[in-house]
Amino acid sequence: MERIKLHDKEFKICIPYEQIMESIKKVANKMNSDYADKDAPIFLAVLNGSFMFAADLMKFITFNCEISFIKLSSYSGTGTTGTVKEMIGLSTPIKGRNVVIVEDIVDTGGTVEVLHKLVSDAGAADIKICTLLLKPEAYKKDIPVDYTAISIPNDFIVGYGLDYDELGRNYKDIYVLEPK
Ligand code: IMP
Ligand code: MG
Q1: What CATH class has 17-152?
Q2: Per-domain boundaries in the chain
Q3: pLDDT, tens digit, for every residue of 126-146?
Q4: Catalytic pick among 56, 107, 165, 173
Q5: Which of 96, 107, 116 is nearest to 148 (CA)?
Q6: Whose atoms come closest to the Cα of 69: which ligand?
Q7: Is 34 a catalytic residue?
Q8: How far is 136 from 152, CA to CA, in rounded Å?
Q9: Ligand 2: distance of its center to the CA of 70 in Å?
């Protein structure tokens, strides 16, 4: 589909599924060489946005690993609220473990900062950040984003797990908000 309408807004396709998969494969291959000789890490996927990315990423991973999920919330509509709430906490002990935080998108970095602190406070031995999408112009934090599949401009996008007020997560391509 070239265009989708979610609530009151129109979006047009900007990153087709095939390109998303190619980018994920590249990032997975980088991890495959980085983690080949390390203790099996635990991937901590951030719900809801990263469910599709996490599922596709895992299929390209060739080392032993675990996966678990955490749920946070910071967004309302198309602008960040600036506050991040923990909704489903850590269900797995991660003390002494290698942890890879799996995000759908890193925007200002507020979410990543909160997650990094949470995982660090829980005693992780090593923490890496992996994101499908990064908005470099918006990112304001010092925490390194270790694995980025795709860097994008400072636009609002949906699809492939990402939503506009909970709609749009099901579409396999990524769409950008059309200016009115
Ligand atoms: P941050 O805390 O500002 O980095 O925002 C991160 C979270 O905001 C992401 O995990 C998404 O849930 C949401 N978000 C940021 N940018 C977008 C976007 O362009 N479309 C949809 N959700 C977004
Ligand atoms: Mg998210």
Answers
A1: alpha beta
A2: 17-152
A3: 999 999 999 999 998 999 999
A4: 107
A5: 107
A6: 2
A7: no
A8: 7
A9: 10
